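ok posting inputs for the S-adenosylmethionine job
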Amino acid sequence: MGDALPEPPAHAAQVSRELAKRIADAIDRAGGWIGFDRYMALALYEPRLGYYAAGSRKFGAEGDFVTAPELSPLFGQCVAAQCAHWFGSVRPRIVEFGAGSGALAAELLASLDALGEAPERYEIVEVSASLRERQRELLSRRVPALLGRVSWLDALAPRIEGVVVANEVLDAMPVRLFRWSDGAVHERGVACAPAGGFAFADRPADDAFAGRVRRTVEQVWREGATPRGDYVSEIGEQAAGWVATVAERLACGAMLLFDYGFPRAEYYHPHRSTGTLQCHYRHRVHADPFLWPGLQDITAHVDFTAVAGAARDAGLAALGFNSQARFLLDCGLLDRLAALPRGDAREWARQAQAAQMLLSEAEMGELFKAIAFGRDVPDDAPGFATRDRRAVLE
Ligand SMILES: C[S@@+](CC[C@H](N)C(=O)[O-])C[C@H]1O[C@@H](n2cnc3c(N)ncnc32)[C@H](O)[C@@H]1O
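and the output
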């Protein structure tokens, strides 16, 4: 499959080779095998070389994928409406994780300002130094008067008050892979391939991981058939751990997350036997995580039942779970589209097309979900007003 993908330019290929050498060294030091989560962490976040740590273009038309805030300002306007509602009962502050190009931050600040609800502080937690610079540059152009309220945090504050926002961050967190075969659980990791590069390598899972896999899948399979033959999937330990940490620190406020994924019963459906691992390279989706390490995105879908469980265990109340499309419609996306100036017909048509992508079931509308939790926040979020599927996560 890799053969059909475009070759990277020479300097990018060189960066990838340097990262591959570093990953191979890590595998050697570990005795010939590392977990896939370790591989994914190195490929995406190794300082200076990893996909999100290096300076290459990732988001937007000339990058590898397009996210909702990149697609249209309508997304940020809808999220702003939801935040403005919450600002009626929590401190008007936003903490955004993994802000990418800064598009959502810019739109949130501008829209909230237009509503007379500019947050007193907008904090960004960003693991990538190059993305921080890109965000600062965009915000200084788009919302110069509000730049003084924006700060970048090196570490998560021990106490958070306000609204936590993260779009497509959970799917970028390293996952562990497993292979289930007639009741035996193996952990799928990474070894150096004899011919160069890397290859999957399975070994019997340790007791803790095997137990976690069994508890996860048996919740789903006890009512349905157990899969026949090999079943490969992921466990998003880091995503659930991240939600737990943020939730514990959220002293008073709401947490609003957008990502693609499913409730557990769908995620681990016996028919979904090859998991959800995906790679994005120049707007093509493929399944080879070993192609050009550091030059492509690697993601897995989100198990929203695990996310909801982590938030609940930390004492947060569920405020809503729904498709992204339904959330955006409930936040008035169509009225906002209709209200956009029509003077520039091409720009209006572009926004209408973007709205279609955000809403269409065949695009981002159904696979992408919105999920919200809160502490000491009224359970009346407008984004979940007409339909709410939170009950499927219990
Ligand atoms: C797919 S991009 C999404 C970017 C942006 N939110 C958007 O919608 O365009 C994933 C982002 O998550 C960030 N990220 C991953 N793990 C993170 C963590 N633990 N804390 C903060 N950011 C994280 C990455 O650096 C990257 O900016």
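notes: The domain at 68-172+240-264+302-393 is CATH 3.40.50.12710 (Rossmann fold). The mean pLDDT is 93.
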